[in-house]
Design brief:
Length: about 190
């Protein structure tokens, strides 16, 4: 087992919010609960609040057909708690606003809507699992995120996890803060 695989295995084993497992996302099997997440106000930055379940599933079918695109579901005790997307920025519009390296991997992240009392640190720990998965991929040395620049909660979380301050860039669907995290700066 590689050091990075050991890292993500340790993050899953030591996840303080329940027994964590990570599996692939299925647009057909997972659409009911995922559509519920992305249509909520807190997910407005995903741009899917008005889309039907069929439209969201079709979008994920399209995304998963792209080379290097992966979507994972993090579950605790069998319940979906977060979704992470890993993608090659060279095949994404973000690759038009900076000079992507073949060692870069982009990620998107969404946590489940809260159903009980707040769990301090949950989102940061869950995002760290997705980061570890990205750095497990052979040759990946840098991860980028491009949250909507108005999404201050996500921008601040990424800064706490070690991402640079980033710069504002114009993407087809948003003004985004382009932020990077080098492997050497990742502290799971």
């Amino acid at each position: 087992m590689s050091a990075s695989a050991q890292t993500s295995a340790a993050l899953c084993r030591d996840f303080p919010f329940g027994a964590l497992d990570v599996r692939g996302f299925s647009p057909r099997d997972d659409i009911a609960w995922f559509h519920d997440w992305v249509r909520r106000d807190y997910a407005k930055f995903w741009g899917m609040t008005e889309k039907s379940p069929e439209a969201v599933a079709a979008e994920y079918d399209r995304l998963l057909a792209r080379p290097g695109y992966e979507v994972v579901v993090g579950r605790t005790d069998g319940t979906p708690r977060f979704v992470g997307e890993l993608y090659d920025p060279r095949t994404d519009p973000v690759g038009e606003v900076y000079d992507p390296r073949d060692t870069d991997r982009g990620i998107h992240f969404i946590a489940a809507p809260r159903t009980g009392p707040p769990q301090s640190g949950f989102t940061g720990r869950a995002l760290s699992v997705v980061l570890a998965l990205a750095f497990e991929r052979p040759g990946i040395e840098r991860v980028l995120v491009e949250p909507d620049h108005r999404n201050e909660k996500m921008v601040q979380l990424c800064r706490r996890l070690g991402f640079d301050a980033g710069r504002i860039v114009t993407l087809p669907d948003k003004q985004a803060r382009l932020m990077f995290l080098d492997r050497r700066d990742f502290k799971p």
